[in-house]
Amino acid sequence: MAAWSDLTNDVLEYITSFLAFPDHCRFGAVCKNWRSVSKSRRYPPIPQLPWLVLEEEKETRKRKFYSLSDAKHYSIEIPELHGRYICGSSHGWLFAVDIKITGILINPFTREFFELPPFPPFCKDVNVNTLIEKVPSDYMGGPRDYTFEEMQARIVTKAILSHDPKERSDFTAMIMFGEMNTPAFWRPGDLCWTVVDGQDGSSYDIIYFKENFYVLSPANVIYVVDFEPEPKLRVVGPQIELYSDALEQYLIDFDGNLLLIERFCGLDEGNPITNGFDVIEPNLEENILYEWYDIDGYALFMGRNSSIFVNASHFPTCKKNGIYFTHITKSKSACHDFGVYDMTDKTISKLYSFEVFPPPVVLPVWLTPNTW
């Protein structure tokens, strides 16, 4: 009988077509020949559930991840992410900010990255980019009385992409930044971020939907971003009349349907925690709201990431009609928790046991592994 190491490359490559990303890495560690086959990357890993991007380990500085598919934690050496705060995720890429308030866009598994230009001023009267050159990083009287460690986590609330940079070089990055969650965009080759005008007040969420960027305001008005002749926000429908005490709202692209998700919070020993969600489909033309009582056996993943939805029936460990959530806003009154909400029985459960793995210090971000 032939040894495993003697299997032909065609057979080995075919085997890799059935492997998820972690198993693909293990496959390459078997022997020299198998490692060579794994590096050829003829077949991409099979689809898997999103990963949670956690904080880095203090001693090793490796970045920690949690995989829902196999319920395991992984620690991966990614030097480009050392000391960086993850403020967004889109198409398998991460937006990361360092202590000097500079950012990169990186695929953590291929290590491809883009250097981002300095962010716009946090607020009208303070420009963090000029302050950084004048004071040390532990300066306690920093912008608006925040330390630079706090500013690192506050400068960008959410960041998304129009397309996967590996598939289209003309992609657009859109962020919500600063005191008012103002939208701004950047494209490869731009020397600075371009702020989008046209809205009074702050933003709640941004989404790329059907070839356009949309912005949700706290007044439940949805804007579309017009790039020509000059960048500005334009109202695309009447104000969505909601009569609820939801603390946060999100926009979700669910298989071509634009959904508005309301997040409700309560108090647990004085601390705000998530206690429920409503799923609403707004008809912007007729100003009609349709409430959804389930999501047809799918699962949604919400937070600082672009919209992610999966068919839960394809993944044994995924909860059908589940809303997997992490924290998004920087409001002190917001719910700083994460878990999964079951729309069927209206219960919330933890993603994993804190008795086995301690809860993260920094709230995590969802990431769809984009390993090829």
Distance between the termini: 34 Å
Q: How many strands, which pairing sense, and closed or not: the largest β-sheet?
A: 5 strands, mixed
Rounded mean pLDDT is 82
Tell me the strand order in the biggest sheet: 21-20-22-23-24
Shape: globular
Q: Which stretches are poorly predicted, pLDDT < 50 over at least 5 residues?
A: 125-142
Q: State the helix count.
A: 5
Radius of gyration: 21 Å
Secondary-structure content class: mainly beta
SS strand fraction = 35-45%
Helix-strand sequence: HHHEEEEEEEHHEEEEEEEEEEEEEEEEEE
Report the count of strand segments: 25
As a percent range, the share of helical residues equals under 10%
Quick structural overview:
The protein has 372 residues and is mainly β. The protein is built from 5 helices and 25 strands.
SSE topology sketch:
Layout: H1 9-16, H2 21-27, H3 32-40, E1 51-56, E2 63-67, E3 72-76, E4 85-90, E5 93-97, E6 103-106, E7 113-115, H4 128-131, H5 148-154, E8 156-161, E9 173-177, E10 182-186, E11 194-195, E12 205-209, E13 212-216, E14 222-226, E15 232-235, E16 248-254, E17 257-268, E18 271-283, E19 288-292, E20 298-302, E21 308-311, E22 322-325, E23 339-342, E24 347-349, E25 365-367
Parallel strand pairs: 20-22
Antiparallel strand pairs: 1-2, 1-25, 2-3, 4-5, 5-6, 6-7, 8-9, 9-10, 10-11, 12-13, 13-14, 14-15, 16-17, 17-18, 18-19, 20-21, 22-23, 23-24
Helix pairs in contact: 1-3
Domain F-box: 4-42
Protein name: F-box protein SKIP23
Domain KIB1-4 beta-propeller: 65-342
